[in-house]
Amino acid sequence: FGIATDENFVITTTNRKEITEDNFSELVQDGVTLYLLQSVDQMLVLATKERIDFLPHYDTLVKSGMYEYYASEGQNPLPFALAELIDNSLSATSQNTGIRSIQIKLLFDDSQGKPAVAVIDNGSGMTSKQLNNWAVYRLSKFTRQGDFESDHSGYVRPLPVPRSLNSDISYFGVGGKQAVFFVGQSARMISKPAESQDVHELVLSKEDF
Fold first, then answer.
1. pTM exceeds cut of 0.85
2. Whole-number Å distance between alpha carbons of 49 and 47
3. SUPFAM superfamilies in the record, alphabetically (predicted)?
4. The domain 58-146+159-205 belongs to what CATH superfamily?
């Protein structure tokens, strides 16, 4: 790596957890991307990119807008799809100590690409591994483990509050993907964990699937 003998360095996960003798077996597993840095909080000199390989469940595409929204039979299913996307933001902002901000934007400006639906919140943010797990079909927010934690890691069911503030819509971790591909042809998740300087981005597309 071209490291001088008198130069200090650290090896970290993409979550900026330093690899040590004590946590090596826990954090270093097949397929894990590692950073070689001068310090844990070093700014990255350029964007890193990794391909996530997993077998998407066929229901993600085949039954998008039908299976998960059976309760809306005979009605316009679009509100149910949007509810699934908003549920991610409700969960992400459930621990906010300040104002919970969730915005829904409909973008029709072709100069910025194809039309899109954007859901934006000021929640806790997701690490690269949490984004990875979000992509996996039928991975419940209650069963995701370890450093490969979910976007709902440590999830605690909210205290009884008006239903619009709860986050139990995607209880089985199914709806988000189907909602995305019911509304459009691709998903782009951009997230910055509250305690991190790194911004993580995940892109899924029907074409790739």
1. no
2. 7
3. ATPase domain of HSP90 chaperone/DNA topoisomerase II/histidine kinase
4. Histidine kinase-like ATPase, C-terminal domain (3.30.565.10)
